[in-house]
Each structure stands twice: as structure tokens, then as C-alpha cells.
Write a structure and sequence with these properties.
One of its GO terms (cellular component) is Golgi membrane. One of its GO terms (molecular function) is alpha-1,2-mannosyltransferase activity. It is found in: Golgi apparatus membrane. With 523 residues, the protein is an alpha/beta fold. The protein folds into 2 domains: 288 residues, Alpha-Beta Complex (Spore Coat Polysaccharide Biosynthesis Protein SpsA, Chain A), CATH 3.90.550; 135 residues, no CATH class. The protein is 40% helix and 15% strand. α3 packs antiparallel against α11, α7 runs antiparallel to α11 and α11 crosses α12. It is globular. About 3% of the residues have low confidence.
Length: 523
């Protein structure tokens, strides 16, 4: 009598166990890896990356522009972006038609070859994600402060710090400080320098690849072991866990997110001819600001390879074509334009970048900006989705009155990143700048906060970010004395930051609000 119920119970238990196992496996397959490779894994990765570079380098070299660099009549003006009133696209580059055709043919060949080549897949640890930086020399103190700000958010993303070559490797930083913050240093020349030398026109042996300055960013991203990348410049830090962006739209939808600069796009019309794309409207988007980028190497490998091509020939050809001498000319336009030319999706955040800084001028009405504030793309995307829903409601003849609270759920996007780009907040140098560009002065020449305007933007931080940043700068200045090679021979770095802290934040602790920001973040 009990056999049938027992068989039914056993069948139910089997089905339940199967279901739970399936769910567990599915969760496991979706799980992301938040650890750095071991020393053995790192050596294996590097060997495979060298193989990848040996496959990519000949394709880069065989598809050179094969023409003189473009001639720029003058630099593009710094014109602020206004989607409602866009100016005509500047056209300041002169090139013979034959040279444009040569560049177009080389661009087409390169794109066709990398799409068709099975060996040109960037080497990654599957399902891994992390933060990638490139820094060395005088930028290392700035990088450590930024990295500590990253850890303040509670983020546990691993970090890879790329150095140009062995001359930038500082043992005290790479063997002690960076590992203590869940990071590792990677020397780019150990990969790029492993390629065979080539013979120049003069018969001398020359290295196959000479990568420097703005070009470092794309090659750090290309050779990072992470499948999903949060790129941050050394002077850029997040205000919330950056991994949260990777789990939300628009990143989940597109696999690539960029942020805007202050200025109009100044991409030359000739570039669109070379890449065989229609010329977009000047009101479509601002130029790019690439202090921060989100990118999936799984979905955007062609974008990465084409961006590497643009950067490899950037100083000579593509940087002038993509910026025409506008502010910040360099790698900044290569990522979004590569994605567009490769036909891979991206989301360009449209919430305008905002400057923060201190007041300047005799009347105190000007602003000396020292940082750029970028906003949350997931918040912006949510608002965009709500707008679409409300538009649908408005167009529905059966819902004439359903949109009376159509904007009730719309919120201003939160602050995501602060890019403290000019000047650099290196405690060894930041107090030595000229009077007006020094971010640490008040109009009377005394020590003061760097970020006091605009108050509306500061209030959106949610907490006193500048105080937190100076806590980390103070830690770097005092705890890492004698650690940075660029600080050799410099005395009193810790003491000067301590004095600044006492003059500004110590005074505020006693209720002295000279800079007028106390109370902005009180609940």
C-alpha cells in the first residue's frame, strides 16, 4: 500500500533536487570572478598574450596608412556642447584625395582581417571583471589615492596597474602597496617587447612597437586579464561601487558605456570617409571624456582591436583626424568611434559633465575648475525608459488622464565618478602651483578647499567627498614617505599636507566655515 506514495515522494524529491541543481549551476555559470590570477596563472596568461600580440602586430604593420600625416590648417576651437544649437562640423584637415583613399583601403583591410582571424581574440580569464589603470612615475602617488577612494566605496574588484616598461616598476609600490589593495602591476613592455625587432630604412634594428603616453590606455585594456573592464585614469575615482554599473543596463544591454566631455565633437569629415560611415549630426552627442570607460571584451573585441589600430597610428594620423587639435587631443575619441565603425553597440551617457573647483577673479565670480563630475548611466537609462513609457501613455487615447504624475518617478542621476584631472592632486607638487591654478587656495591666498562651486553639484555627492579624498592624500603623504621614486630629494611632504588639513578641515571641526560648504551633506 505504501509503495506507490513512496515512489511518488521519491520522484518528487528527484525532480526537486534536479531543479535545485539546475538553479545552482545556472547561478554558478552567471557568477563573476573577483580574484587576481595566481603567479602561475599570470605567467601562463602572459605567454598567451605574447602569442596574441605576435598575431596582431603584423596585421597592424601591414595595414599602415601608407601616406604622409594629415595637415591641420589650425586647431579646432573649444566650443561647448549644446544639442539644441549645434554648430557646423569643423573641417580643418587637408589631405589629397589619393591619401584619403589609401587610408580608407588600409582601414578596410585591417577591419576585414581582424574579423576573419580566429587567433585575434584578446586573452582573458573567462567571467572575470576588474579595474584597469595605467600609471607610472609622478602619477603613482595620485593613483594610490584614487585606488584608496575606490576601496572606500566597498568595491572588491581586483585591480591591474599597467606600467609602460621596467623603468617604471617601483618595488615598494608594486610588491607592497598595490597588492595590499587587491591589485597587481603588469609591465606592458614585457608583452610588447617580446616581439621581434624590425630593420629600419637606415638598416638599424628597431623595436617593433613604440607605445607611449595616450596610447597606453588601449593597450592596457587590450592586455588586461579581465573580461569585463572598468577603466579608470589614475586621477579618477568612483563614488559608488563601479561593479554595480556592470550588473545594470545600459552596460548589460550594450557591453560598452562612455561619458561626455564639455566640448562639441570635432571629428573630421575625412575620418567618416576613411571609415566609410555617414557623418553624424553635431547635436547627436558631445565629444568623449575617457577618464572612465566600461567595456566587455567578450562582446567588443573588434572595437578593442580597431581602437588599437587608431592608437598605434594615433600620433601621426588618427588623433589629428579625430580631434583636429581640440582640447584633450589623443586617445579620447578612439573608443567610441571604433565601436561605431565596427558596428558594435555602445551607450554614450548624455548627462552633461560638470566642473567643480574654487572661485577666482577679483570679484570671486569665476571658477577655476580642478575636477570633472560624471553621472550615473543606469539612472539616466531608467529615466529614458520612464520617458518612453510616459510617451506611450500620452499617445494612448484610452489613457488621457493617466499621465498626471508622469515625472513623479524621474530622478536626477547620481554622481558616479570624479575625474580630478587638472592639476593633479600629488601632495608633493599640488601646493607649488601658480596662484590661480592652485586648487588649494582662497582668494586671500590662505589654504582652502579645492571644491566649493558649484554648490548644486557638490550637494549631489551625498557626503563630503573632498574631505574623504584629502584623508587618503594625507595617508599617502605620511604613510608612504620615501616609497615613491619621484619624491626622492623632496622634504616636508607629509608636514605640508598635515598643515593644510589643520587649516581647512581642522578649522571646520571647530565650526569655522570659511568655504561655505558645511551643511551641504547633512541629513
Amino acid at each position: 500500500m505504501l509503495a506507490r506514495p513512496l515512489r511518488a515522494l521519491a520522484a518528487f524529491c528527484f525532480l526537486l533536487l534536479t531543479y535545485l541543481t539546475f538553479r545552482a549551476l545556472r547561478r554558478s555559470s552567471d557568477a563573476r570572478i573577483y580574484i587576481l590570477p595566481s603567479a602561475l596563472e599570470a605567467r601562463s596568461l602572459q605567454a598567451r598574450q605574447i602569442e596574441f600580440w605576435h598575431a596582431l602586430l603584423p596585421i597592424l604593420r601591414q595595414n599602415a596608412p601608407d601616406c604622409p600625416p594629415p595637415h591641420r590648417d589650425r586647431n579646432a576651437d573649444a566650443v561647448g556642447f549644446n544639442a539644441a544649437q549645434p554648430p557646423p562640423r569643423p573641417s580643418l584637415i587637408s589631405m589629397p584625395e589619393g591619401d584619403v583613399l589609401k587610408m580608407q583601403q588600409a582601414h578596410t583591410r585591417f577591419l576585414q582581417l581582424v574579423i576573419a582571424s580566429p587567433n585575434l581574440k584578446p586573452v582573458v580569464i573567462p567571467k572575470s571583471r576588474g579595474v584597469v589603470y595605467a600609471a607610472g612615475g609622478r602619477y603613482l602617488p595620485v593613483l594610490v589615492s584614487s585606488l584608496r577612494m575606490l576601496r572606500r566605496t566597498g568595491s572588491n574588484l581586483p585591480v591591474e596597474l599597467f606600467l609602460k616598461d621596467r623603468t617604471e616598476y617601483e618595488s615598494s609600490i608594486c610588491d607592497e602597496v598595490i597588492p595590499s589593495l587587491n591589485g597587481r602591476c603588469v609591465v606592458l613592455s614585457d608583452i610588447l617587447g617580446a616581439s621581434p625587432v624590425r630593420t629600419g630604412d637606415d638598416g638599424d634594428q628597431k623595436p617593433q612597437a613604440e607605445i607611449a603616453h595616450y596610447q597606453l590606455k588601449i593597450f592596457a585594456m587590450l592586455f588586461s586579464s579581465f573580461e569585463e573592464i572598468v577603466w579608470l585614469d589614475a586621477d579618477c575615482f568612483p563614488l559608488r561601487k563601479p561593479e554595480e554599473h556592470l550588473d545594470l543596463n545600459p552596460f548589460k544591454l550594450t557591453g560598452m558605456v562612455t561619458w561626455p566631455d564639455f566640448w562639441i565633437s570635432t571629428v573630421s569629415p575625412l575620418y567618416y570617409n576613411i571609415s566609410q560611415q555617414p557623418i553624424p549630426s553635431m547635436g547627436l552627442r558631445a565629444s568623449s571624456e575617457t577618464g572612465q570607460i566600461l567595456l566587455s571584451k567578450k562582446t567588443h573585441q573588434i572595437t578593442l582591436l580597431l581602437a588599437a589600430y587608431y592608437n598605434y597610428y594615433g600620433p601621426s594620423h588618427y588623433f589629428p583626424l579625430l580631434s583636429q587639435g581640440a582640447p584633450g587631443e589623443g586617445d579620447k575619441e578612439t573608443f567610441l568611434q571604433a565601436a561605431s565603425a565596427a558596428g558594435e553597440p555602445f551607450y554614450a551617457t548624455s548627462e552633461s559633465v560638470t566642473a567643480i573647483g574654487h572661485v577666482k577673479g577679483k570679484d570671486g565670480t569665476g571658477i577655476a575648475g580642478s575636477a570633472m563630475v560624471q553621472f550615473d548611466p543606469s539612472d539616466e537609462y531608467r529615466n529614458y525608459q520612464l520617458a518612453l513609457i510616459n510617451t506611450h501613455k500620452n499617445n494612448n487615447r484610452h489613457s488621457q488622464h493617466s499621465n498626471s504624475n508622469s515625472n513623479s518617478n524621474k530622478t536626477s542621476p547620481r554622481v558616479s565618478f570624479i575625474h580630478a584631472n587638472y592639476p593633479k592632486f600629488n601632495p608633493a607638487t599640488v601646493f607649488n602651483l601658480a596662484h590661480e591654478t592652485k586648487p588649494t587656495y582662497r582668494l586671500d591666498g590662505s589654504d582652502g578647499r579645492a571644491w566649493v562651486v558649484s554648490r548644486d553639484t557638490l550637494a549631489r555627492f551625498g557626503y563630503d567627498v573632498e574631505r574623504a579624498y584629502w584623508e587618503e592624500i594625507l595617508w599617502v603623504a605620511c604613510e608612504l614617505k620615501g616609497k615613491f621614486r619621484s619624491w626622492e630629494g623632496k622634504e616636508g611632504i607629509c608636514e605640508r599636507v598635515q598643515k593644510y588639513w589643520a587649516n581647512v578641515f581642522g578649522a571646520e571641526a571647530e565650526g569655522v566655515d570659511v568655504d561655505g560648504v558645511m551643511g551641504l551633506w547633512e541629513k
